[in-house]
Design a protein that fits this description.
heterodimer; A: 1% strand; B: 147 residues; 0% strand; transmembrane (chain A); DUF112_TM (chain A); Putative tricarboxylic transport membrane protein (chain A); membrane (chain A); transmembrane helix (chain A)
Chain lengths: 498, 147
């Protein structure tokens, strides 16, 4: 292991990790250019490197891209990657009130803490933790998605019914196209372009970014409040103090991120939402969530960065990619002639441990790079006049929604959903419940239909859905979340009436 | 007055939600038994929530959720139209020319002060430079596909 550490600390690997973090952060910060795309775009450059260096670069790009998504989430209310959805919920309100620099620093510290926990889990607990991935069946996915959807009650800020309408719209949007199981063609109205469904990333860009752009255009005031006294430093001391006060939130969120990362296909967006929901449920001041709560930003960033290390556990031990970028990295491993599986940790341990230490180093390098890039990103966004900022962001939304599948129809979907999202926001329906429905709908539906079919074949549908220990644990968490949301609302009403 | 406006908004939300749910359910006839489970559930959520909003308006009329403010509908409409044209045009007129025009249009719509001839030229040139610069960066350096 010491040899692997020394190998990871070589000048060449340090430089590669550094460049990977910078490249990943910049790509992740651009709306629509996801971590998957960052890894996919840069993977060919690693084929000429030796396996451990190539893996370090890919891990560093992935780590940087997941973190980079926080910038646009905080500064323009557009998650740069789906993993940063929950970050925008409190990050943007913080930026609106003039605390964007603090939000960026908090997101950096949270990402580093989460990334370290994920990497340590990969280093020490990979083989036993990978068994968790195998114990997740369709029903567990279904309940996990339902848990995520219960966040609608949290997000609706005293207007649960409007939140439910938004969630219903999102779920209906997720039904468009071929059904995930069975292949029913639904709500396409004869348009072949809709057979693949509503694309998530263009929808995210549209629902989050276009309404901000419209508001930017129609309002005379500046996009973000600029407070002169806050333009001098990183506000690092303040952020560290907040992190220390949120230490249990950091640890819990990082563990959630690692756990969700291990589950194949769940990904950073689910991890962020689950950690955000738990942070709100356990917070002393849950009413601050959605209005710029520090804990919301910390929870989301710590958990989504922890999915990086967590996702590598099933990728390396079982050959099952935990997240989409893991799938690309798995392909790169195969090209390099590395066979994944439990024997990897014994037969090619030097490569695995060098990579894991490289991931840890890349996460640590994210601290200085993230703080510096974040600082300049914040200064840029608050300093550039709206007449330059609005066209530049609009341009990136067009490119970002096209780039994933080179499809101009996706651009049209992005713009249309954005305009609809702005109109819906005018009548009280926010984007977040719609996005939750859109992202979690297919996971819930696939889990439900598969569980229903398997339960039917086994003659015990009730036992299938309500008899599994992991399902019961997730259901208990869902009930707790909904109950705490109800108690909080009653408390708020009582306080308002007295 | 605010309360009445908000009640109208909420009533509109409720009617739209019920209408959308009813329409979505009406489309499920052609689906298989398993394929219609989720759309029906989602529609029922939308319809129930819409009915709930209507009941809330009747029982608790003071539940305001949206603050009223003056909206610059003209600018909002112009911006939305620009974005829609931008989304539809690259295939016909090319990405760089369309985007340069659209970037310039968005800048003009955003600007509140009157523009001099020099200012128009500067904005137009800046639009072309921005689009060309970003396009080169994205397509050549990052290998991102452009329309």
């Amino acid at each position: 292991m010491l040899d692997a550490l020394l190998s990871a600390l070589s000048l060449e690997n340090l430089l590669l990790a550094f460049l990977g973090v910078i490249g990943g952060t910049i790509i992740g910060a651009l709306p629509g250019l996801s971590a998957t795309m960052a890894v996919a775009v840069l993977v060919p450059f690693t084929f000429t490197m030796d396996p451990s260096s190539g893996l370090i670069v890919l891990g560093a790009i992935y780590t940087g891209a997941i973190y980079g998504g926080a910038y646009s989430a905080i500064l323009v209310n557009t998650p740069g990657t789906p993993a940063a959805i929950a970050t925008s919920m409190d990050g943007f309100p913080m930026a609106k009130r003039g605390d964007g620099d603090l939000a960026v620093t908090l997101s950096c510290l949270g990402s580093v803490a989460g990334g370290i926990v994920g990497a340590l889990a990969l280093l020490f607990l990979a083989p036993p933790l990978s068994q968790i991935a195998l114990s997740f069946g369709p029903v567990e996915y279904f309940w996990l998605a339902i848990f995520g959807l219960s966040l609608i009650a949290t997000l609706s800020r005293g207007a649960t019914l409007l939140g439910l309408i938004g969630g219903g719209i999102g779920l209906l949007l997720s039904c468009v196209g071929s059904a995930v199981v069975g292949g029913d063609v639904r709500y396409t109205f004869g348009l072949t372009s809709l057979l693949g469904g509503i694309p998530v990333i263009p929808a995210l860009i549209g629902l989050y970014c276009v309404p901000v752009l419209i508001d930017m255009v129609i309002r005379p005031e500046a996009h973000l409040e600029r407070r002169a006294e806050q333009m001098r430093g990183f506000r690092l001391t303040e952020a560290l103090s907040l992190m220390w006060r949120s230490k249990f939130n950091v640890i819990r969120s990082a563990m959630i991120g690692t756990g969700v990362g291990i589950i194949p296909a769940a990904g950073g967006s689910v991890a962020g939402l689950v950690a955000y929901s738990e942070a709100r449920r356990t917070a002393k001041t849950p009413e601050q969530f959605g209005k710029g709560a520090h804990d919301g930003v910390i929870a989301s960033e710590a958990s989504n960065s922890a999915t990086v290390g967590g996702g590598f556990i099933p990728t390396l031990v079982l050959g099952i990619p935990g997240t989409p970028p893991d799938a690309i990295i798995l392909g790169a491993l195969l090209v390099q002639g590395i066979r994944t599986g439990p024997q990897l940790f014994t037969q090619q341990a030097d490569i695995v441990f060098t990579f894991t230490f490289g991931l840890l180093i890349a996460t640590l390098l994210m601290l200085p790079t993230g703080l510096i890039i974040g600082r300049y990103a914040y200064r840029l966004i608050v300093s550039v006049p709206k007449t330059a900022l609005a066209p530049a962001i609009a341009f990136l939304t067009i490119v970002g929604s096209f780039a994933i599948e080179a499809n101009t129809f996706h651009v049209l979907i992005m713009v249309s959903l954005g305009i609809i999202g702005w109109l819906l926001a005018r009548i009280g329906i926010e984007a977040s419940p719609i996005v939750l429905g859109l992202i979690l709908g297919p996971i819930a539906e696939a889990g439900f239909v598969q569980g229903w079919l398997i339960g039917g074949a086994q003659g015990d549908r009730f036992g299938m859905f309500f008899g599994q220990p992991i399902s019961l644990a997730i259901m208990a968490l869902t009930v707790l979340t909904l109950a705490s949301s109800g108690v909080f609302k009653r408390k708020t009403r009582l306080e308002c009436s007295t | 007055m605010t309360r009445i406006v908000n009640q109208w908004r909420q009533a509109l939300v409720a009617v739209l939600s019920i209408g959308l749910g009813a329409f979505a359910i009406s489309q499920t006839n052609s689906m298989s038994e398993l394929g219609r489970v989720f759309p029906t559930t989602a529609s029922l959520i939308a319809i129930s929530a819409g009915l709930g909003v209507l009941v809330q308006i009747i029982l608790r009329p003071s539940a305001d959720t949206v603050a009223n403010e003056k909206i610059d509908h003209f600018r909002a409409g112009l911006f939305a139209a620009t974005m829609l044209v931008w989304a539809l045009s690259p295939d016909r007129f090319g990405f760089v020319p369309t985007s340069s025009m659209a970037v310039f249009a968005v800048a003009v719509i955003t600007r509140r002060e009157p523009m001099s001839k020099t200012s128009i030229l500067v904005h137009a040139a800046a639009g072309v430079v921005l689009v060309l610069g970003f396009s080169l960066l994205l397509s050549e350096v990052l290998n991102v596909r452009l329309p």
